Amino acid sequence: MASTGPLNPESDTFENRPVFYIGQHDSSRREPLTDDQYGQFLDSGFRFVTAPITNEHFFQRVVGLYKTHLAEQEQWAQQRGLTAGQQANPSLPPPVVPTLTDKDTPLSPSYYISSLVGYASPWIDLCSPDPHISSISRQVLNLEAAYANFCGVRTIVVPGPRRDECGRGVAQYARAIQEALVANRVNIIVHMPMYREPGLEEKAQTLSAIFDIEKEAEAEAEAEKEIDLFGAWDSWHTIRSVCSYSTRLFVALRIPRRAPEKELQERWFAEPLHFLTLGASIFQQNRAGNPTLSRHHQDMINRYMRLKNTPWLVLCDVGPRPEELVALSKKMASEYPSLAEATQARRDTRRQPPNAFVGYLRYLERQQQPFSAMETPVLTNFQDWLQPPLQPLADNLESATYEVFEGDPVKYDQYEKAVFEAMTEWKELKKPTSSATPENPSNPELVVTVAGAGRGPLVARVLRAAERTGTPIQIWALEKNQDAYVYLLRRNKQEWGNRVTLVKTDMRGWEGPRLQGREGVIGKVDILVTELLGSFGDNELSPECVDGIQSHIARPHGISIPHSYTAHLSPISTPRLYADISSRVVGDPNAFVTPWVVRLFAIDYVAQKAPGHPKFQQTWEFVHPVEVARADDFAAEHGKAARYATPGVGSMGGSSGTNEHNARHCHLTFVCRARGVIHGLAGFFESVLYASQTGDGATAPVEISILPEQIDKKSKDMISWFPIFFPLKKPLYFPQDTELEVSMWRQTDDTKVWYEWLVEVYTWVGPKTRIKVGASDLHSSRKVGCLM
Amino acid sequence: MASTGPLNPESDTFENRPVFYIGQHDSSRREPLTDDQYGQFLDSGFRFVTAPITNEHFFQRVVGLYKTHLAEQEQWAQQRGLTAGQQANPSLPPPVVPTLTDKDTPLSPSYYISSLVGYASPWIDLCSPDPHISSISRQVLNLEAAYANFCGVRTIVVPGPRRDECGRGVAQYARAIQEALVANRVNIIVHMPMYREPGLEEKAQTLSAIFDIEKEAEAEAEAEKEIDLFGAWDSWHTIRSVCSYSTRLFVALRIPRRAPEKELQERWFAEPLHFLTLGASIFQQNRAGNPTLSRHHQDMINRYMRLKNTPWLVLCDVGPRPEELVALSKKMASEYPSLAEATQARRDTRRQPPNAFVGYLRYLERQQQPFSAMETPVLTNFQDWLQPPLQPLADNLESATYEVFEGDPVKYDQYEKAVFEAMTEWKELKKPTSSATPENPSNPELVVTVAGAGRGPLVARVLRAAERTGTPIQIWALEKNQDAYVYLLRRNKQEWGNRVTLVKTDMRGWEGPRLQGREGVIGKVDILVTELLGSFGDNELSPECVDGIQSHIARPHGISIPHSYTAHLSPISTPRLYADISSRVVGDPNAFVTPWVVRLFAIDYVAQKAPGHPKFQQTWEFVHPVEVARADDFAAEHGKAARYATPGVGSMGGSSGTNEHNARHCHLTFVCRARGVIHGLAGFFESVLYASQTGDGATAPVEISILPEQIDKKSKDMISWFPIFFPLKKPLYFPQDTELEVSMWRQTDDTKVWYEWLVEVYTWVGPKTRIKVGASDLHSSRKVGCLM
């Protein structure tokens, strides 16, 4: 979709709310507009129109072709004493549609051709039960797509499958679209209803209808059928699956007369919506006789308009009719207005769109909520944009990267609050500091260490919390990045009055704090502060790093900020990310086993909130420090040495098992009511930075969270972390009343940490019967694992 | 599996029936056998025994480790006033199993180690509901697999998952096996029951059982459950899927007390069976008190013994007990027999196996049906062996290839019969020959053409049929292969008395028969004989070739032999071929879209015969010659020229549509009662070579068929064609009561022919409700299509 002026933040017409791009489709139009007519359309407030690719002449030829074929069949049957239709002649080849002549198409290359949207012949029926009609339809589509492509049309709309019925015709329809996509370079937009409204579906005058292929019994069966809310979506899913999620395949979504439940709206929200099409019948009349939309319709459109690629609106069979345009055109031609007059006339109409429907949509446009702080162009650009995960332990970050991370006041406010409460409570509970000794019991300085200090944001917050609580502290800051270390040295001198003891070291190799004023004595740390969390909590190896330094934490009173963190999952449908990852596989064979960091937006959370099965579920938890009993043994005995020696513990796939206590496993069950498809798992984290130890329950823990359901409550507007996405190699389809069983592992050897994930699909087919219907591969990110 | 002497046709001990390779497993064995004991086992008729990898000492250490862990948990809970088990300590790391010491394992490298089969500790429970027990079990498996691997053991047996329950533990079990496979080079054989016999399953003394992890309620629920015939297979399917169909993963299948229905037997027939294990309890006693098996058990074993890789038989807890062996060994040691005496003693026992169960199995072995003519070593080697499809039009065949094809008397007998009947009927019906003209009405010679004569087998048969029917003929033989042409020239001179007019030409470029004795007159062909059929009928382009020559067939009487042919499909489960194709993908990216020619054997036809839905279903038909009305137009107007010019017909994906009349499409529904998985579609053909034209119905048509249900009736022992296999990129799982909807297309442009296929899964979940549960990709063989 081309970025139009008002959508382009670089443009001076940039508006701070979504922009409506409105077009028109006239199903009775048999000729494309003349240049003049097109100009008038633009003046009526429309930005584009659809154009038929072939005309009535071609239609009649195709009908004639099929009639000849029928006659031949009949003749053959008569010769054999059969009644017509009783048996087809096996040796009679099916009709072959001749190529187009100049009489068959009104379309030619023209100056506005690339802004035209071609509309394939509405009378084709690609999934007709009659094999010859479906074959003819497929040939017509190929002819039209090829000719439109030749003329320079960039996009054609194809009427969607006429039926949703199981398996039969949709596969055939899908294959025809796939063939047209492969043979041409045009984009194809399939015109789909949001759902089929029983009794409200117009019977299209297709070849099948003309030749009465639909048997009456079938038509009745159709009318009796219950409403199948997800039937149209399901057909679309088959089509795009057969087309391998082509990035040239889009949906034109027909807005229904009755807005459906949110679940279905959200399903389509995740699909590549190019057009929303609106017929006159979905509008109501207000008291002034002008068209309006119901609140439900407005909400639905407003929601879709927040998409990064805003869908275009197409008014169907609304606006000037061809005959009106012809009259208008003749009038203009007869009057020979001067160029100035014509321009003025156009300006007039532009000021006051003559079309009431367009006028109403423009009104809706003005009512759109302005973009919020979370919808800045920069943040919007991150929507559904895959970022490879960081390797913070193996790689040194650049200053600019630190700066981005530091730019999140919410996160650091929470950290300061956590340190503040920890210091306050330390005083209240009269906990001894580790700098106090029998010989020097009056030394009340709290020993604080910021491990992984980066450019010092946490150091600054710790100093401020100490000041606000009036707590005397000795503070250490550890940093392994030699370049950030220079920055810290300078800041210590300039800002912190050299109050901070800076140590250039990997925290896992630190000797511990040499207490001030006590030559040669290595003490313990009262408060350890780290910011090592990733989008999935533990995915940037916070557990391993804090383990590596926890032997320096004072016992029993010393604490770690964060105190604990949990990882969370929810299965999602995200065709866009699936297509994106598929396109990367050639260059990056691990693309489907990489946990991507991505600001998930045009996605559908398929799971429902159900008793015992929330929409977002916790996979596991890490708590710091780990129990002394054995964790310190790990750190002491097997810590760094374990990489080189094989001590007498454990054996995990050839490793020594040193880090096995940080392995995790979970098995979660998600409940899905409607049928759908998932492309992977969305991952999040929450962390308790500090939980009050008084146990009175009066003080809420200080938390941060990126869980969609919690972030506004716990850390609103925090932007430091986007979610993580664990893809599936193959989309996993599931029927209604499904339970998705997710198995996930956090695995580790002596050198790295990775995840493995597997999804199985079980469906309830009765009150007591649950059947397995499918499963994903076992996915492993070992090859792109996080290095320890 | 190593090929043993009697299985090797090169060996002089080669026996003309399946050979039984019998071993023993003793579940109470805690130490491997000494060399002497092992020798005695061999003398009792066994060929191998299993050996434990670790001993009681290790078991007690692991139990102790877990007890310590429980005590720590309890202590933590008491400190917090919780009852034990109420809440786990989140910061207490799980137990890590120490590596083995010399006290933990009796196993050492020894001279017979590679013939030993290691048996993993039976007390591990990889899918225990207790995460710590499953973690310990996984660690134990890793330690044991690694140590066995070190010692030189090539294969270890691992007890299968203890439960089949949906989703929960099996995924975890599967992942543990996968980890052991990746970390070691040993083969892993999972010991699975054929199905779980309710009430007959022995409760294994696993860690879970010892620590009472299985709650009583669960156990009761288990006992109440209905028999789930395919539950164990389903668990196996999960395991091998998670292990990516590793070729180092096998099944040891426990033969149940009650032989199950054929459907389940056939399911396992297609799996990589390494062992069949037989407990004493499946045997009955005959009147003499000796063990025997029921007829059902015998049939089942006989069937499995026809596999190319014959499974080994393992008698479980049958045969000498360790204490007996110890006594025996001591006796031998105390007696110090001379080498000659010992050898003699062994010979004696060998002659008369001391074990009654082994004796009975040896009896069964002698009862095996000798290998049939279709089970020669050569034909057996072709079982499940993938052959890339021929390109007979583009490539010239070698003489040896022709010779193989000619070596099938059944096929040529049928051809001769067809020609014989055609000639007989020609005479009976007094049809005029095309060599007769008004000027020369008395010329009664039938004009026969063999197109694609190769080395001449059909020419010989035509000559013989003419002789047998006393029909005067003029015969042409066309061949495009210049080298085969030389062979024909020689044969014509030496065998056929130069009666045959040989033309070196592609049949599609032939000018037609220049009638004998009528200078310059090009006539028509009365009988056209071709052998262009492939495994799927039309897959070697018979339709296109015959089209290219059919303008020379005399009308209305001229005929084509074959008259017509049909293609047929059935979905199959074939893990072996799936694994094979998967392993080829790196070198051949089209491996999964190639229709392979393969002698299908270790496969499972998953479809049932159901009303209106046979097990094998016809996809489409071709009839020759095509109706004159338009097919000749194709041939004449657009034949060969169509490749270079675009005539005014059709448009199929950029081609001119010349061959569009040979495109086909079908949609088939297959019914599956039990759940399962498919890996692709098996394809077959049938052909009517000649159908009587008298219409009296008295004469059966002359047919050939490779359809499993028809071949014995129509062309028994015909070996010219193996089936064709259309693979699926991903195995497609389906629940019980499923309908597999198969869409298939025969596609064509101006240069080649290819197939496309798609399978969708729909399941009945009530008398009226059918839900979609999955679908394959759309597969296309275009890239490996057959060149025209």
What does this structure look like?
The structure is a homodimer of 788-residue chains. The first copy, chain A, has 788 residues and is an alpha/beta fold. Chain A has three domains: 22-369, Divalent-metal-dependent TIM barrel enzymes (TIM Barrel, Alpha-Beta Barrel), CATH 3.20.20.150; 378-407 and 558-788, Hnrnp arginine n-methyltransferase1, CATH 2.70.160; 408-531, Vaccinia Virus protein VP39 (Rossmann fold, 3-Layer(aba) Sandwich). The first copy, chain A, contains 21 helices and 28 strands. An eight-stranded parallel β-barrel of chain A has the order 1-2-3-4-5-6-7-10, surrounded by five helices. In chain A, strands 16, 17, 18, 19, 21, 22 and 23 form a seven-stranded antiparallel beta sheet that branches. In chain A, strands 20, 24, 25, 26, 27 and 28 form a six-stranded antiparallel beta sheet that branches. In chain A, α3 runs parallel beside α4, α4 packs across α7 and α15 runs parallel beside α16. Chain A is elongated, with a radius of gyration of 33 Å. Chains A and B meet through α3, α4, α7, α20 and β20 of A and α3, α4, α7, α20 and β20 of B.
Q: What gap, in angstroms, lies between the N and C termini of chain A?
A: 43 Å
Greatest contact between two chains? A-B, 87 and 87 residues
Fraction of residues of chain A in helices? 25-40%
Structural class of chain A: alpha/beta
Number of domains of chain A: 3
Give me the count of strands of chain A: 28
What's the topology here?
The structure is a homodimer of 788-residue chains.
Chain A lengths: L21 E4 L9 H9 L4 E5 L3 H24 L37 E3 L11 H21 L3 E5 L8 H16 L3 E7 L13 H4 L5 H9 L6 H12 L6 E6 L7 H8 L3 E7 L4 E2 L5 E2 L2 H10 L7 E5 L5 H14 L3 H13 L4 H12 L9 H5 L17 H8 L2 H20 L17 E6 L5 H13 L3 E7 L2 H13 L5 E5 L22 E4 L11 H8 L9 E3 L2 E10 L1 H10 L11 E2 L6 E2 L11 E7 L4 H11 L25 E9 L3 E15 L11 E4 L5 H5 L8 E11 L3 E11 L3 E13 L5 E6 L3 E2 L5 E2 L1
Parallel strand pairs in A: 1-2, 1-10, 2-3, 3-4, 4-5, 5-6, 6-7, 7-10, 11-12, 11-14, 12-13, 14-15
Antiparallel strand pairs in A: 8-9, 16-18, 16-19, 16-21, 17-23, 20-24, 21-22, 21-23, 24-25, 25-26, 25-27, 25-28
